Amino acid sequence: MTLSFRKHTLANGLDVLLHEDRACPIVAVNIWYHVGSKNERPGHTGFAHLFEHLMFEGSQHHDRGYFQPLQGAGGTLNGSTNADRTNYWEVVPANALELALWMESDRMGFLLPALTQAKFVNQRDVVLNERRQNYENRPYGLAPMATLASLFPPEHPYHWTTIGEVPDLESARLDDVHAFFERYYHPANASIALAGDIDSDEALALVDRYFGDIPAGERVTPVRASALLPHDVRIYFEDRVELPRLYIAWLTPAMFASGDADLDLANDLLANGKTSRLYRRLVFEERIATDVSAAQNSREMAGYTQVVATAAPGHALGDLEAVIVEEIRRLAAEGPTADEMERGRVQAESQFIFRLQTVGGFGGKSDQLNAYNVFIGDPGYFERDLNRYHAVTPDSMQAAVARYLDPAARVTLSIVPSGRAELAAPHSDLVSVA
Amino acid sequence: MARSVAVDRSKLPSPGPARSFVFPSVEKSTLPNGLRVWTVAHPQVPVVSFVLLIARGSAADPAGKEGLAAITADMLDEGSGDLSAIQMHEALARIGAQFDTDIGSDATAISVTTLSRVADRAVGLLGDVVVRPALRQHDFERVRQLRLHRIKQLRDSPAAIADRAFLKLIYADDPYGHSPIGTEGSLATLTVDDVRAFHGGTFASDAATLIAVGDCDHATVAHLAGRAFSDWRANHDQNGQKPANAAAAPRLAVVPRPKAPQSELRIGHVAAPRLTPDYHALAVANAVLGGQFVSRVNLNLREDKGFTYGARTSFEFRRRPGPFVLQVSVQTAATARAIEESIGEIAGIRGPQPVTAEELAFGIAALTRGYARNFETADQVARAVMQLALYDLPDDYYAHFVSRVEAVTRDHVSDVMMRHVDPARLTTVIVGDLDTIGHDLGRLNLGDPVVLSAESF
Fold first, then answer.
1. B126 CB contacts (<8 Å, ≥6 apart)?
2. Which of A389, B135, B203, B352 has most Cβ atoms within 10 angstroms of its Cβ?
3. By residue range, what is the domain housing residue A304?
4. B15-41 confidence digits (pLDDT tens)
5. Is the pTM of this model over 0.80?
6. Cβ B98–A350 below 8 Å, yes or no?
7. What is the tally of structural domains in chain B?
């Protein structure tokens, strides 16, 4: 399987990616701006995401809500911000492609004239409520804040979460929005993908017509930072939860770097699904945990692997930790079985093909083309990406686990019910998070 | 590249004529044991989505055994024949299958999505899971324990507490009044024999539909189904759910969550069933009121007031009347105002502020113009076919959806909202910091709140 495409770069630097799939009369429009919370500075966290909200509040030639015309045309739309990028997408009936391009180009070219203090304050309130809903008032919701702050040093842009810190959001100003827009929201820092019921020549001409006159901005210098976790960090905090939960995290290779795919498959084998080693031991056999999962979180500058497990009532997190560390040591010492390797490869291939089923939305074909283009400069990376997984061998996986999931250099976070500090993994220090 | 036409930014481009979309036809056959096999060819990607639908869900739980249907569904993949639970999952993993079990009040759906080249093995495993589950005692003990832990954990989540409290208050002892997982009390009484009996009486070939959508043809699927499901017996227990008489629900209830930064709200009551003739008008009404981003409720509470990250309303259509509900999580200080605004919007659309011509046109357009995108993937089409099977909708139901929605008028919208939604009957559930918000609640004129504890569900 491949993900076919055409790529063309407009004179102003905007990358245009086109993929024809005429099975369903819809078109996905997907734009990535290569800016995320990693472009923020301490004291100004949460800004990239707050800015994303403002992109939906109207632009110079359509100074009303962004949703109305597109939903009225039968479209669906959304956007998201993470550490490395901000994406915006619409999926519209094929006859509304031009409308979507008009709207996206108007906010890329003409956002600031429509931006007011009232809109800014309103969306800052909305974001503060997003933070309350998804982090502060959610069980275990502050775990990412504590984990990232310990994994990455204070000046490293992965030290903070994308939602940001409350005092930073409260002190954000409208002036900051102007500077941010000028610096990051322009054609040379963006990539647009169209996938679906299009004729690629016509679609390219339309994109050029709507975006071609937007002035090229200054190229953004990539952020560089490095992190090293020289020693063990053991922390805990109390939360309004019934069951304690353990998070163990390690610094790992960046997205697409050597070791990234090995760790992705190693995490599946360790902790994802009922066949995984840790599920078997913790949940199925010893029954000391209610759930366990693991992921290699691949980012542009670095990655981190995190294993998460919730203790069954009556069990302390130290018991879970001992099993997790033992299984990781065993994988590092003995490597995976042939059967585990085969299942991992088949599942990876299936997942790649499942991803080809939809043109739009988060993770659809248009989003994948942009991800490959923005992060690796090659929208055609789909097959090579799959080949990274085919190339994993028992030896390479074993080596990656041994090298990166070092039991002596990790962040171990315990979240325990209020007043139950004794359930935390041993020798953990209390931290405060907000 | 030369640009021949300058962009006209004085007005938005109007969409051209819509490209046609026709919902694909469903091919049907029935095995000798009564199992219905329904397929749709959707060959774009070499993938097949299978859904095995049982038209019986958590509303079929016997009184006192709430959670039985869900734990039975959960036990299906815990091994079959000589295969242990883990070996069953290894077999699924070896073909790269995505396996899911969904249970709602009216139905249980077991789904497997897989590459088409291993479709035969997927159907075989689906048969093992559905027809021949092992249902062993020691697996049951473990699965029940995990579900008891899960109930404990749901008490941590304001949204889960609000959902459970809301259903309990508006339905009381009706089979729709409990969430599928049941309660700690009911789960504690269940035995593996209950599960075996429920499986025997509910998972029967004549009560099931096998739906296959994707890169497959009907004859092949029917043949595979014959192999995997032929020993399934048609002994469906015809005893349906027993609706309870609706008790008067309290107007206002609070589940205290001290120091919570937000209040989680549910506002609604029992409304209409799936087969109501008012379905399309209610869909349009809901689109305008709170069914999408550009709706009265979200624009008011989020975009105007900034009280929340998002607010929405929905009619949850079921076999019998399902809930109408507004759901939102608001900053604590704004709780009483948000409730006033919400109830005001619900009351307003029934008459004082009827849907305008512009809103009606917008609501209809939003529901119809992008209709095709609901049927892009095999899984989406399979879910659509599942609705046909579950509610006995005609095969051409989707072909007529757009014209039926387009026929809705402003009068229809006012009429159906008058008949199906009653502000005087709304129950408001708050999961929040009672100490902070308590003194504001009096001005809502909803009476003294009933105070509930999260442990009571």
1. B50, B52, B110, B112, B210, B228
2. B203
3. 233-430
4. 988 888 888 899 999 999 999 999 999
5. yes
6. yes
7. 2
